[in-house]
């Protein structure tokens, strides 16, 4: 099992230490030392005050912040959680991703979602009801400009002619696609290298406009559906990662039980999950670093020991 850490800026307000260059780099360096596979940031460029007051959280720009993390690490992959793809022109996303991949030595993974905050879409001038179609076209655009020159495209949402965008990534970054729906799994088969479902009880699923996922049965059903779609498209399901976000306990809190967490990890591994995304307590940078170190000692190293022959 591999683990991806989301920067622990998950409240409003937040500890100002978390948004300093030294804070970001300290957390990134700690994640690499602890054995995390990846590290990234959420994407909320224009959240509404109403959403923040009802439990939302502030955010850094993920591409800028991942650049800071890249500069102090050598192995850690840079994996946002998630880039809301309709918020940006796909040529801008492709350029930012290619730049980060080139400067980090090929360590960028583009993880994307369709988004759900209507107020944020409105503020950014993006048609909310068109977001699914925008994502489909954007993924096609990004893959093309990362791999070819003199690219032309004519779609409903984007149109351009003869674009060559260099520098290219060192190699095409993996594309991870978030969401619990069948549409998300369809996009994985067409464009992606990983499916990223998340735990979503009925109320959360309504808020985030996705399918409910409140138990193993729905996750298993989704993985089986993905495998069927892969078979129909001639893709090997084993080549697609299953990236799960939603284990309940938070490292760094007094309630965190490493043994219980490991048991959940092992259960998910038997289902087919290959990567787990999590965050840690973020009341301060020191607390976050301590929680990362504890997680590395009690969970990640335990996993490494179990997989050694």
Class from secondary-structure proportions: alpha/beta
Poorly predicted tracts of residues: none
Q: With helices defined by DSSP (H or I, 4 residues minimum), what is the helix count? A: 11
Task: Spell the H/E element sequence.
Answer: EHEHHEEHEHHEEEHEHHEHEH
Global shape: globular
Lateral arrangement of strands in the main beta sheet: 3-2-1-11-10-9-8-5-4
- Give me the Rg, rounded: 19 Å
For the termini, the CA-CA separation is 15 Å
Mean pLDDT comes to 96
- Helix percent reads 40-55%
Task: Describe the main β-sheet briefly.
Answer: 9 strands, parallel
Quantity of strands, as a count: 11
Strand content: 5-15%
């Amino acid at each position: 099992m591999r683990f991806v850490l989301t920067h622990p800026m998950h409240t409003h307000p937040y500890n100002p230490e978390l948004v300093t260059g030294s804070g970001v780099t300290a957390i990134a360096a700690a994640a690499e030392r602890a054995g995390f596979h990846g590290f990234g940031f959420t994407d909320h460029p224009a959240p509404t005050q109403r959403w923040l007051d009802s439990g939302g959280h502030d955010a850094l720009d993920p591409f800028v912040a991942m650049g800071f993390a890249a500069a102090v690490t050598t192995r850690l992959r840079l994996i946002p959680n998630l880039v809301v793809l309709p918020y940006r022109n796909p040529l801008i996303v492709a350029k930012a991703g290619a730049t980060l991949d080139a400067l980090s030595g090929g360590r960028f993974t583009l993880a994307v979602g369709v988004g759900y905050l209507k107020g944020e879409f409105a503020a950014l001038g993006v048609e909310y009801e068109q977001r699914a179609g925008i994502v489909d076209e954007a993924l096609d655009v990004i893959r093309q400009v990362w791999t070819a020159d003199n690219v032309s495209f004519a779609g409903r949402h984007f149109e351009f002619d003869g674009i060559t965008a260099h520098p290219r990534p060192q190699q095409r970054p993996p594309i991870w696609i978030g969401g619990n729906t069948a549409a998300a799994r369809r996009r994985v088969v067409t464009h992606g290298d990983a499916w990223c479902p998340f735990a979503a009880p009925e109320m959360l699923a309504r808020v985030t406009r996705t399918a409910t996922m409140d138990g193993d049965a729905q996750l298993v059903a989704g993985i089986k559906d993905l495998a069927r779609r892969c078979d129909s498209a001639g893709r090997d399901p084993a080549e697609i990662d299953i990236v799960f976000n939603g284990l309940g306990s938070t490292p760094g809190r007094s309630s965190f039980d490493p043994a219980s967490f490991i048991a959940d990890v092992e259960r998910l591994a038997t289902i087919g999950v290959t990567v787990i995304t999590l965050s840690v307590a973020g009341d301060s940078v020191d607390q976050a670093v301590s929680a990362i170190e504890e997680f590395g000692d009690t969970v990640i190293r335990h996993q490494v020991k179990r997989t050694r022959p």
